[in-house]
Amino acid sequence: MTAFHSLLNTYRQAAQTEREKGTYFEELICTYLRNEASYKDLYSDVWTYAQWAKLQGKDAKDAGIDLVAKTQDTNEYHAIQCKFYAEDYTVRKSDIDSFFT
């Protein structure tokens, strides 16, 4: 088992709810995007949606967006959805529909 898989299993076991598990995963991906070399070069900032919404004076209500990243060169914002399902689960269109509407 890789260190990454071990960490994900720790999240699965430690989380008391699906929401808590999702929050752990979102924070992991946010940290990854801030620190992994290619993404660090691409993005000047990465926030959870709630953090970004607060900075923008917007409602932080869950709209299917989990993270927001701002590009270095063009100052565009990228909406990111994180999914943390079982290893053998195949993500279906219905799982991400709220992200596209």
Describe this structure in words.
This protein is of the alpha+beta class. The protein has one domain. The chain is 51% helix and 15% strand. The protein is built from 5 helices and 3 strands; from the N terminus they run H-H-H-E-H-E-E-H. The protein has a 3-stranded antiparallel beta sheet with strand order 1-2-3. The radius of gyration is 14 Å and the shape is globular. The protein starts with a helix and ends with a helix. The relative contact order is 0.14.
Write the layout of secondary structure elements.
Blueprint lengths: L2 H12 L3 H18 L1 H6 E6 H8 L10 E5 L5 E4 L12 H8 L1
Antiparallel strand pairs: 1-2, 2-3
Query: What is the rounded distance between the termini?
Result: 37 Å
Shape: globular
**Which residues form runs of ≥5 with pLDDT under 50?**
none
Biggest beta sheet attributes: 3 strands, antiparallel
Instruction: Give the number of helices.
Output: 5
Question: Which strand order do you get reading across the main beta sheet?
Answer: 1-2-3
Helix content estimate:
40-55%
Number of DSSP-assigned strands = 3
The secondary structure category is alpha+beta
Q: Mean of the pLDDT scores?
A: 91
